[in-house]
Amino acid sequence: MDNLELEQDNSFAFFDVQNLSIDHPIIINEELERYKEILFSPNNLHQIYFKDNCNLETVKLIKDLLLMSDYIDDYSVDKYILLKLSDDDIKKLLNDTYENSDTWKVPYEVDDDNYILTDIPRLRELYSYVETFKNNKLSQLELIMKVYDEVKLYEYEQSEDKEQLPEIIKNKKTNSYGMNKLFSFILKRFGYKTYVGKNSNALEYYTLVEIDDKKYNVSGIYLFDPSMDTLSKEEYPNEEIRRMNYNFFLLNFFMLNRLLYQEELKGFLAILSIENEEHSIEKIENSKNNAVLREKEKIESEFCLGYATIHKILKMSKSVNKDIIAKINSFVYDNKKANYSELLIENYTLRKSELFKKNTDEELEEIIKK
Q1: Which among 20, 254, 295, 305 would be 20 to 30 A from 355, CA to CA?
Q2: What SS3 class is residue 137?
Q3: Which tens digit of pLDDT belongs to each residue from 99-137?
Q4: pLDDT digits (tens, 9 = 90+) for 13-55
């Protein structure tokens, strides 16, 4: 920017420009001059969109030019970055300085070409929150449990809203969609491959995670659903007790009892859950349902594998012994209480709708104090 001539005179080539859309990098001097003329004129500019093949260098260039304008106030212009950004790109954006950071809208996720946007301050809060889970001493499953436990402690609310993740971590409450999206989002930041799916005729979502944990000898793609393990804070005020619920943690996909989800499986999930590989592939290939086909493309994209390979890995993913869950929990929380692990295993084995059926809340409190 130091070598730019930025004279701003009274001969204006552009008037009343309200929206600006930039879809490619600005590398030609003539084009740069045109944008300077727009930004250095008394235009009524409200929005700037960066999209398609535009890049971050162009975003920074326009940002700096806008701040130099004598005619357009930066705070009155909303800037939308409609680009598919890598984590490194987002970190570069967050490390930059902004005069009015809340006017910059950045996608933290792109879902079916739908850009899920938030402003710079909220995005910084979201990424700072993710960093709290960073721990190089934890194995894959230990980190997954740490994230799972945090998310399932959020207050559950029954709704169809698709809230933004920054709002969820601020309010500490959400629905099945929000819990699974937050769980998946955090794991992705640490390099996990995940997929969030939905039972087509219900409000339940679930998360598939690819795992290769040498410490616990667990490898494959497993199902998680923190929303099904969340417990009422009013009924179980002790956080340590609420954290002990792992009935939907590290499940083999084909052993999933369909009754655990309130309604019969429909749509893509129903086809994926057909254990016979040839039958499942035939059903997906013959499907005329656009929603089902979109989900097929999405899961293939998330795991970078074809549908047949994903189905085979799901089938080969061995069921995990309940004792492994207790061992992971014991390591993550440095918990050596025998009664605690026994109670966790008992609850995992029973899989009842009512937690720890044989114990009152007071008895549970007494057990975990020992």
Answers
A1: 254
A2: coil
A3: 999 999 999 988 777 899 999 999 999 999 999 999 999
A4: 555 788 999 999 987 888 888 889 889 888 889 999 999 999 9
Cα 313 to Cα 181, 220, 308: the distances in Å are: 22, 6, 9
C-alpha torsion sign, points 119, 182, 232, 198: positive
Among residues 60, 56, 120, 110, the alpha carbon closest in space to that of 88 is found at 56
Residue bearing tokens 């960093």: 131
Gyration radius from the chain CA atoms = 25
Beta bridge partners of 223: 208, 251
Give the tokens for residue 256.
């999933």
Q: Are 261 and 180 in contact (CB under 8 A)?
A: no
Residues found in the chain:
370
Cβ neighbour number for residue 363 with a 10 Å cutoff:
11
Q: Where are the domains of the chain?
A: 19-129, 136-369
